[in-house]
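Ticket #516: bound-state structure for ME8.
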Amino acid sequence: MADQQKKFYITTPIYYPNAEPHLGHVYTTLCADTVARYHRLAGEDTFFLTGTDEHGIKMVKTAAAQNIEPQQLVDRVVKVFEDVWKEFEVSNDDFIRTSSDRHKKAVTEIVKKLVANDDIYLGSYEGWYDEGQEEFVTETEAKANEFKSSVTGKPLTRYQEPTYFFRLKKYVPRVQQYIEQNPQFIQPDARRNEVLSKLKQGVEDLSVSRATLKWGIPLPQDPGHVLYVWIDALSNYITALGYASGDDSRFKKYWPADVHLIGKEILWFHTVYWPAILFSLGLPLPKQVFAHGWWTSGGRKMGKSLGNFIDLDRLRAVAVQHSQDALRFYLLRAAPFGSDLDWTDADFAKSYNELANVVGNCLNRTIKMIGRYRDGLIPAIGETADLDAHLVSQTESLGRSLASAYEKLELQQCAILPIELARATNGYIDATAPFSLAKDPGKSKRLDTVLNRAAQAIKNTLVALLPVLPDKAAAGLEQLGVKIDGRTIDDLLRDELPAGHKIGEGQPLFPKIDPK
Ligand code: ME8
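RESOLUTION: The complex was predicted; output attached.
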């Protein structure tokens, strides 16, 4: 009997629809998209989720400033998010909105379960509140940051009100033990240490409701309160799968998530609150929470007033001028995955030139030579030489090194490894000099081998780039006459272009851009 198909479930944060998506949102979403595309191409049953986090005071305030209801605001901005993901060819399988009925119903059931476990109780809270982060901060933390948000720098607000609490403290020892015993749970490692040391400083129970707010999910046991807000938001990862609904077949198939991909500022919520909630629900924890770094622009925090904000219009302009795939490549290429990143036009140009001069050039010269010297037909291997061995082994091992890079979410490597093969192929072509071989009829068998090896190598480069450059890599493969036809990445890498295979016309994949 065939092995059961492996499944893979990846999520992005659900974004606040109080403003249009910008570079940060596009980054996380395209990174997750690349990983999802890889796992799909590997033949796994893949589920990729994104969505929007629509409750909370931020939405209420933004709506009030625009003289509209929160629902009108989120309906408008969520549409922008959905359209943008289509425009950027994001391959998400679902889009969860926290204001949707399916989410609200399931969250109500989740809260009932937490209440039934005696994990939610009524208390009263007075404290410093960070509105940007939607969390209370301790007195010590507030003082240390001069009563300003440690993340946004905005002044903290003083709140006192009756509120329901979730018994976070009760679960802390289990959460801590889980993190210690499962090194893969929080990645990168440095982030894991941050969470562990913060846990050791002590944790309070979590305020999870507001009596002063209407915009949110009413608590089933006390509808005068709405849920606020991390239980609502974090639950999206299971409500989207149909948990606590009539049909939980997707939940049974895909949970636990393989990766929650997030920015580093929301790591604490995903690795302390979320596990505690899941423990209370008696559910398994996600296999990994990966926190990536933050983008700055031109060396400074992005800001609308600073004029360095990489907004949608800017991203669209880049995509129109250089292609969406060039943008995708730059985002992955810019820094090791997990580190902070800085957007500069000079770096973008460098990364574009790498695509053009290494991959585009390798494909183009290989296709041209096979057209000119062999009428566009892949020649059979003829005379071999020592020089071939290195390229052959690099061509064959790419699949393994790529699998390991995706396994460890080394996304920069996922972009670079295929490029390195194209670079080696260019070196091989330079060293074997097919143009001189072609002049000597006695070297015809040697030329056969060189052309064959170069074609197999650029074919594998393009196959390996499919998750990173979905359009350009497919276009390049089409030029080589390769049909993807639902084959897996392993098949596509392993199946050589056979002797006699007809390749197509060469077209520059990454045209040179005139400097303006
Ligand atoms: O935090 N660099 O939503 P959000 C890199 N709704 N990534 C960035 C970024 C930057 N400069 N700015 C934003 C929320 N991001 C909550 C999440 S999840 C259950 C609830 C990305 O709209 C990054 O992924 O503020 C970050 O975690 C996310 O956008 C925050 O989006």
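RESOLUTION NOTES: Residues 5 and 35 are 18 Å apart (CA to CA).
TICKET STATUS: resolved
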